[in-house]
Structure formats: C-alpha cells, structure tokens
Design goal:
Blueprint lengths: L6 H12 L4 E4 L1 H7 L8 E4 L3 H7 L3 E2 L6 E5 L9 E6 L1 E3 L11 E3 L3 H6 L9 E4 L13 E4 L4 H7 L1 E2 L5 H7 L3 H12 L2 E2 L1 H10 L8 H12 L4 H11 L2 H4 L1 H4 L14 H14 L4 H9 L4 H4 L12 H15 L4 H13 L11 H11 L4 H14 L8 H14 L12 H8 L5 H16 L6 H11 L4 H30 L3
Parallel strand pairs: 2-5, 10-11
Antiparallel strand pairs: 1-2, 1-8, 3-4, 4-5, 6-7, 8-9
Helix pairs in contact: 6-8, 7-9, 7-10, 10-13, 13-14, 13-19, 14-17, 14-19, 16-17, 18-20, 20-24, 22-24
Length: about 500
C-alpha cells in the first residue's frame, strides 16, 4: 500500500526525527490512509514535550493543557497551514463523563493509543526520516496496531478499545460517535460495544448540548442518515436527544400513507440524504410530521391530523432550541415544517394566488419547500417525487416571478418623451414607448438612454397613422413573444 502523505507533514516529521524524537501519525488519518481515502485531518504525536517541540519550531503556538502545539508550515493549503503536534499522553478519571480530571504525558505510543475510543481509530504510523517524495517508498513507515484495528477495518467493525463501558464512562459522547462512525464508514458496531451503548445510554445527558448537536448533525449529514436515526433509537439514545420523534413509532396513518409516522419521517430523511440536500432540508424532512401523533383524531384509513404542521412547527422549535441550534437555522427549519403542507391544485389557484403564496412562504424558501414536499411524497410511498401538480406550481412560480415585458424595462419613460418632444401627455407617448419596447426586445443592447432619446427624435417625424401601425405591430409581437416564453417555461416543467 502506498501512502500519499503531504510534503508539509513529512517536513514537520523529519525535523522531529532529526532532533531525536519518535514521530507517529495517529487517529482518523491512519484509518483513512489504510482505507485508501484522503484524510481530512493530519494528527501527529511524539514523545517530545511541548517545550521541546517549540524549540524545534519557533513559529508555533502552545496555549492549551493537552500538550498540543500548533506549528505554522507556510503552506498554501488551508488544511495544512497549521499542523498540530501532540505529546504522548494518558488521561485521568472522567468524573463528569466529559473531560479527564487531569492529563499526563506518557512515555510510549502504546500508552497514548490505549486512551482512544475505537480500534479503527487507535492505530499509528511511525514515520522515520524519509524523502519528501515518498509515494513510492513506504519502507520508512511502520504500522502500529496493538488492538486489532486493521482486522476490524477489514471486517468493517466498530469496536471499543478495551472494555467499552470504561470508554463510554470516560467520555459519554463516544456513545453517539460509535453510531456516527458506523454509518459514515458503513461498518457494523461490534455486539459487546453496542450492548454497552444501550446499557450506558443515559450518560449522554451529562454531555453539553452543543457537543450532542454537532454529533447529531454529522449523523444527519451522512448518506446513511436513516440508519443513524434507527441506531439512535435501537440504542436508547434517541429518547435523550429528540424524544418527540419516537412518538411516531406506533402511530398509524390514513389512506394517503402506507407507513407509520416514524417510518414515514425516516424515509423522507433518507430521500434527502440520497439527494445530498443541505442540513436544513434534511432536518425539516425528518421533522415535518413530528406533530402528527399529538393531532391524530380517529383510527384506521380515515383518521385525521388537523393542524399537525402548526403543532409540528412548535415542536420543531423546541427540539432545535434544546440542541442549541442557531436562531437562523431554527427559524428556517421551523418555517419549512410550518408550510410543508401548502395547498395547490391546477386550475383552482390563480396567478394572484401564487403571488400570495410567495409572499406568505417567502420566495427565497420556495425551492427548499418544494424539496421537503418531494421528501414527504417519497416518504409516503408515492413513487413520483414531483407530480404534475408540483411541476405546474413551479411553472406558475417562475411565470409570476419573471419581470413582465413592459415599458418599465426601458431606460427612458413617458416624462422623457414629453420633455424631448415638448408635447402634452396623450396617446402618442404610449405609442412611442411601445415601438421602443419592440426594438429593445429584438436588440437588448439598444436599451441605452442615449440611443432611445435619439430614436424618440426619429419617431416624432412619423405621421400619426404610421406611428399607430408601428405601435399596433409592436403590441402584437409583444403578445407573441410573451406567449413563446410561457410555452418555453411549460416545456421546462412538462406541463400543458
């Protein structure tokens, strides 16, 4: 296997080696390299103490208690401008289940790796003094694996280092991290590790909501987001994160749906993940029907869920506030949940109605709202994400949003005509503007104030009869042009 390690990392490592220190790549970057993926981050660990590292790298910063020194490389690559080097360390007890009570420097890489969460993240690559161009020279690299991480990589397993209960009691966020790694890598969580997650699930309550939010976002943004939510539920974690979602597990729906509310919401999320939609759309799709269990009336195929979108919007706000989402993101998602059930029927809703709809939901939200509606339909078991009604709505929206073809588009107006021709307001002004509009439709580059003022002078020479004929021809061509635009928009959305 060839390791494609950036030049900046090799230069930093070589300086440490030249100074008599052992140097290792650790953590996620080792996992990614062994999987043939490009690492997102490069983590270096060494036996050198922070003060020794700073002597080797004068252009560095050390402002923490974890033994991590930030080294400036001068790289043009944003990800490599700063390289972090951390001294081998061991950690004391985790009284708060979040942070070690104390951090001590260790003497060996084995001690350092022993504190890590999962075997696939507890490997290291020792770097000896190597040439810069190392893609074809891996003889200077030694893989360090004390806990069977390579075997678990091959078997696609997420397994705790040592006893899983101990790892989760050290940092309870690892409960969610196990699930996150599982769906990001498409790995199975090892049985004893998963049983420990279920046993220790309540520990997640001791974790700061911001940290939970960040892990939750990573789960939602994974391609297997649906599986992630299912694992959160199966492990017992979901009731501490978003218990409102669980209310839909046994909530059946009416004749418009073939799944429970729970399955419907998860399938909606799955659709958005498959489309690589952004966070706001994914969360809005997951939460769009969260209000249904509380609004259900009746049973069987004729049950109803009146105002579930309003109740759901309020519940969504509570969930996102609990998880410390920003005000901006929260407002956007709540808005999408609130309006996801918009009504539109071809032939019933006029252009004026579409304009009112745009004012109500905000034109900037329409595209996202349509995407949530798509997810809602797919989650219902309906094969078409964008049926005729939605396509027709998109056609109407584009039609009413486009600027109308009118004299307002001209760089001159009626007052300019009056001033240039020194005449009183009257029908002649409108005729002249119609002729000018016709000319700029054909040649938009002529729509300059200088050119139009010159043309006004020309048009004054025409008889009233000739000017009327030109104006009538212009009006007819305008109607034909507008009709052509509308037909093009119809073709775009496959509507009649």
């Amino acid at each position: 296997m060839k390791f494609n390690i950036p030049e900046e990392i090799i230069i930093v490592a070589n300086k440490l080696v030249d100074s008599g220190h052992n140097v290792y790549l650790v953590g996620g970057c080792v996992r990614d390299l062994l999987m043939g993926n490009e690492p997102k981050d490069w983590d270096i660990t060494t036996g050198a103490k922070p003060q020794e590292i700073q002597k080797i790298f004068p252009e560095s910063v050390y402002e923490n208690k974890f033994g991590t020194v930030a080294v400036k490389t001068g790289s043009d690559d944003e990800k490599l401008k700063i390289v972090e080097i951390t001294t081998f360390r061991i950690e004391g007890k985790y009284t708060d289940k979040r942070h070690p009570d104390e951090v001590k420097f260790a003497k060996t890489i084995e001690e350092d790796l022993a504190r890590r969460d999962f075997t696939v993240n507890a490997m290291a690559i020792e770097i000896q003094n190597v040439k810069i161009k190392i893609q074809n020279d891996n003889s200077k690299f030694k893989i360090i694996d004390f806990y069977g991480g390579r075997e678990d990589l091959e078997k696609k397993i997420i397994r705790s280092v040592g006893k899983p209960e101990e790892r989760f009691n050290e940092d309870a966020l690892r409960l969610m991290r196990a699930i996150r790694f599982s769906i990001q890598l498409n790995f199975k969580i090892e049985e004893k590790t998963f049983e420990a997650i279920k046993k220790e699930a309540s520990l997640i309550e001791m974790i700061a909501k911001e940290r939970i939010r960040d892990e939750f976002i990573k789960i939602i943004m994974a391609s297997l987001a649906k599986k992630g939510i299912e694992l959160l539920e199966e492990s017992g974690l979901l009731k501490y994160i978003a218990p409102e979602l669980r209310e839909g597990i046994n909530t059946g729906q009416n004749k418009h749906h073939i799944y429970t509310v729970w399955e419907h919401n998860l399938r909606a999320l799955d659709y958005t993940a498959g489309k690589s939609y952004p966070l706001e759309i994914r969360l809005a799709s997951l939460l769009h029907d969260v209000g249904k269990p509380k609004t259900k009336a009746g049973e069987g195929l004729d049950c109803t869920f009146y105002n579930h979108e309003i109740v759901g919007a309020k519940m969504t706000a509570i969930i996102l506030d609990r998880l410390c989402f920003s005000k901006k993101i929260t407002e956007k998602i709540v808005h999408l949940v609130h309006y996801h059930l918009f009504y539109y029927n071809v032939g019933e809703v006029t252009e004026a109605g579409v304009r009112r709809f745009l004012r109500r939901v905000g034109s900037e939200n329409v595209d996202d709202l349509i995407k949530v509606r798509e997810a809602d339909r797919i989650g219902s078991g309906v094969p078409k994400a964008v049926p005729y009604k939605l396509r027709h709505l998109l056609f109407m929206i584009e039609k009413v949003k486009r600027d109308p073809i009118s004299p307002k588009m001209l760089k001159v107006n009626g007052e300019d005509v009056i001033k240039i021709l020194k005449i009183e307001p009257g029908p002649k002004i409108g005729k002249i503007l119609s002729v000018l509009l016709d000319e700029i439709i054909e040649n938009p580059e002529k729509n300059t104030k200088e050119n139009l003022e010159f043309r006004i002078q020309d048009l004054r020479k025409l008889s009233d009869n000739k000017l009327e004929k030109l104006a009538q021809s212009a009006r007819e061509k305008k109607e034909e042009f507008e009709g052509g635009i509308e037909e093009d928009i119809k073709k775009k959305y496959y509507v009649k």
